[in-house]
Amino acid sequence: MSAPRIQSFQPPTRILLGPGPSDVHQRVLDAMARTTVGHLDPSFGEMMEEMKTLLRYAYQTENALTFPVSAPGSVGMESCFVNLVEPGDKVIVCSNGVFGRRMAENVKRTRGELVLVEDAWGKAVDPQKLEDALKANPDTKIVAFVHAETSTGVESDAKLLTEIAHRYGALVICDAVTSLGCIPLMVDAWGIDAIYSGSQKGLSCTPGLSPVSFGERAIAKLKQRATPVQSWFMDLNLVLGYWSEAKRTYHHTAPINALYGLHESLVMLAEEGLESSWARHRRNHLALLAGLEALGLELLVEEKSRLPQLNAVVVPQGISEPQVRADMLNLHGIEIGTGLGDLAGKIFRIGLMGNSSTPENVKICLTALESVLAAQGRKVDAGAAVQAAERLLAEEAGA
Ligand SMILES: *Cc1c(COP(=O)(O)O)cnc(C)c1O
Question: Which atom of ligand 1 is nearest the CA belonging to 72?
Fold first, then answer.
């Protein structure tokens, strides 16, 4: 067989305004292009310790057990379930979208006893329903929910849900894949027991790493297991041989250059400051919203549950959703997301996550959307969307 004549891959220039990945900053790409050292090199070990410090800051936790799993967010999710759920454990999953459903699937596969508490897609998790489920199931060991449901653009009240779970003696697993770095999240102050995130959303690193953090109660549950963790790779008892400073023995070959990238993106988050990052996400969301309203568009989610980093926009009558996305990508180089499940074709999802959340991107997106909608015959007031966004940004700057 002769060698295929294929040349190096040259990706097109894009602006990533979908549900993730978000735009990766040149500083992060540069960090990833640095020389590869060994995963047991002492210098790399120092970088790993800094990484843990930076992640503790991002999560607002003192948890010693805070590190990135060498795999995407889905494996962070699976790591939480596979380590904490023992066969027969009763687990309540509060589901209001795709990722809640995935949590439920994890409970089944770890052979936990699933109690599914569902809310409509586009609504926040109802704390009263959780409380009712806990009353009906006092032997519940774990409560799991998604802080920022990326499939619908909804924030649930992670602090309140955690408080309710603890009142009934259950541990909490929280999905923070799309919330970390974008909206307030206080692991210690809220008492979250186990949490996972992803590198490619609010942190704007490349995909493929999942920062996790486990508190003392979660570790105690892990230590009390009567059965071994089914997964060899995800078994925290083993992974920690590598991620603990005292041991640092081979477990798997870490994705070295990817970790340089995550380190850099966390350095950038610390430089900006968490509060400033949260405020920036909010500001740019409000600017986008002002522009969308000028285009006569509406968001799916009611104001109090809206995620600034993920805007679910209702597709208006007479507009083809796939055509909007295709034109945004092919004519303007902008990636936006589609709706999933029941919301397929009914919404498009505009992400303003991490490094993608800039006033420039808001304006570029609105200009493109205006022309894409006009091409489908929608009456739009040329330039009005960007003007509305600029007015909002000026007000925020003055405030
Ligand atoms: C993206 C996402 C995940 C999965 O992360 P991957 O890196 O794609 O595996 C899990 N939960 C939520 C809320 C997400 O947005």
Answer: 7
Domain 274-398 architecture: Alpha-Beta Complex (3.90)
Checking if the pLDDT of 53 tops 90, the result is yes
Q: How far does the centroid of ligand 1 lie from the alpha carbon of residue 74, in Å? A: 6
Pocket test for ligand 1, best of 81, 101, 177, 196 (most atoms within 8 A of CB): 177
| Cα 95 from Cα 102, distance rounded (Å) | 9
Structure tokens at 178: 């799309």
Distance 214 CA to ligand 1 centre (A): 18
Mean pLDDT for the chain overall: 97
Query: What separation in Å is there between the alpha carbon of 155 and the centre of ligand 1?
Result: 15
Task: Give CA separation, 321 vs 287, 294, 381, in Å.
Answer: 22, 19, 21
- Per-domain residue ranges of the chain: 26-270, 274-398
Whole-structure pTM value: 0.97
- How far apart CA 103 and CA 111 sit, in angstroms, is 13
**Residue 342 pLDDT level (bands cut at 50, 70, 90):** confident
Average pLDDT over residues 316-342: 96
* Position 178 pLDDT exceeds 90: yes
Half-sphere exposure of 261 (CA within 13 A, CB side): 26
- CATH fold group of domain 26-270: Aspartate Aminotransferase; domain 2 (3.40.640)
